[in-house]
Write a structure and sequence with these properties.
Helix content: over 70%
Number of domains: 1
Strand content: under 5%
Structural class: mainly alpha
Radius of gyration: 17 Å
Shape: globular
Number of helices: 15
Distance between the termini: 20 Å
Number of strands: 0
Length: 252
């Protein structure tokens, strides 16, 4: 039986833990709010109306690709492509190629950053494996201008961070929605975790100061992970209506 992502791949280990997956999307949520193409996420109205629901639907699609047999994974990628084409037709415009690449680059970068923040440093070979998996997704989607290798991706990622981010009214509004749906305490934790995760360029644009006090909290959480008792704390800090979905993310 052939899988889109090999069962021994580090990508399965990264995406097989609920907290790592949530950290990936916490980082991406910060950067989405600054992306110059964020207006596309507002076009259907789903993101600002229900940012957490949109998060979990996106997680579902990503995991359908990573843990599925190859044919099923390819079908999921094709479905994502068709959804985006439908949005483009409804709006009468095309999502910029660089915006598609931005999303792919975020998945690569925050997969690496989240695992390293919560677990350990990845080897170069493991980072290349993360790149290869998501680059294959991009190739299947027919994206243009993709990097040829991990080294080229690092260069392009930095260029995208410098050229494609901007603090705007969308940034403010999206964070107001995060606060509304999470509540004050969860919102503060989200923003501090994001500052630990994001590249310096993103942190500078968000301008939220120093995340120093969250560092010992994360250190304690990593200790709880080694004892395998972190689920209690994680579930306390997340909205009750999403606990079932969150618990279902733990595979490895």
């Amino acid at each position: 039986m052939k899988y889109f992502v090999n069962k021994s791949s580090i990508v399965r280990k990264i995406w097989g833990k609920a907290d790592t997956t949530l950290f990936i999307f916490a980082g991406a949520a910060a950067e989405f709010a600054l992306n110059k193409a964020v207006d596309w996420l507002y076009f259907t109205g789903r993101l600002p109306a229900d940012p957490l629901g949109r998060l979990f639907s996106t997680v579902t699609y990503a995991r359908q690709i990573i843990f599925a047999e190859e044919d099923a994974a390819l079908a999921s990628i094709d479905k994502i492509t068709a959804i985006h084409k439908g949005v483009e037709q409804s709006r009468g415009a095309q999502i910029p190629d660089w915006a598609y690449r931005d999303v792919l680059f975020m998945l690569i970068d925050y997969s690496i950053r989240s695992f390293e923040l919560l677990d350990r440093q990845l080897t170069l070979a493991e980072k290349i494996e993360v790149f290869n998996v998501f680059n294959r997704v991009g190739l299947r989607m027919g994206l243009t201008g993709l990097p040829a290798n991990f080294i080229q991706w690092k260069q392009m990622r930095e260029e995208h961070l410098q050229n494609n981010l901007l603090q705007s009214t969308y940034t403010y509004h999206l964070y107001q929605q995060y606060k509304k749906h999470l509540g004050w305490l969860r919102y503060v934790l989200l923003t501090k975790v994001q500052l630990m995760l994001v590249p310096p360029r993103v942190g500078d644009l968000l301008d939220w100061g120093n995340p120093s006090w969250i560092k010992p909290v994360l250190k304690a959480y990593r200790f709880l992970r080694r004892l395998r008792v972190e689920a209690f704390l994680r579930n306390v800090l997340l909205p009750a209506e999403y606990k079932v979905q969150i618990m279902g993310m733990d595979i490895v």
